[in-house]
Structures are given as C-alpha cells and as structure tokens.
Amino acid sequence: MPEKIKIVVNEDRCYLCGGCAGVCPALAIKVSSTKWEFFQEKCISCRICINACPVGALTAKPLGVSE
Ligand code: SF4
Ligand code: SF4
C-alpha cells in the first residue's frame, strides 16, 4: 500500500479544467465550473492527478502527521 496522502489544490493556479478529475481512477476529485473538490475517503493515493495537472496546481500531503 502506498503512503496515504491528501491532495491539496493551489486555487491560484487551478483553472478548473477538470483534467485531474478525468484521470482519477477512484473518482476522488470533482471539478465544476466554480470549484475543485476532493473526497478523502475515495482517494487511493495513486498520485496520478498530481502528474496530470497541466499547471502543477496539485500537491500531496501525508496523512497522519500534523496538518
Ligand atoms: S491520488 Fe489518485 S485516487 Fe487520489 S485524488 Fe489523485 S488520482 Fe485520485
Ligand atoms: S488538472 Fe489542475 S488546473 Fe485542471 S482542474 Fe485539476 S487541479 Fe485544476
């Protein structure tokens, strides 16, 4: 099992293109015309979304350590 992570968006960079939501195999990201949303309980920590974002708006934070 990979380390459990939380995905965090940099809202200054994200332009809501939906690319990350489209590649997420677990449907853990939802993008609408007004907001980016992450569902921790669905995320399988694969990191595909981070690499898919064209503007580098996503980062991973380890879960279980202080936030
Ligand atoms: S790490 Fe994987 S499962 Fe989690 S939101 Fe990104 S693409 Fe989806
Ligand atoms: S791929 Fe990047 S820019 Fe596009 S919606 Fe996701 S976080 Fe935002």
TrEMBL record:
One Gene Ontology term of the molecular function aspect: metal ion binding
Keyword set includes NADP: no
Location of the 4Fe-4S ferredoxin-type domain: 5-33, 34-63
Keywords: 4Fe-4S, Iron, Iron-sulfur, Metal-binding
InterPro entries, sorted: 4Fe4S_Fe-S-bd, 4Fe4S_Fe_S_CS, Fe-S_Ferredoxin
Record Pfam families: Fer4_21
Identification of the protein by name: Ferredoxin
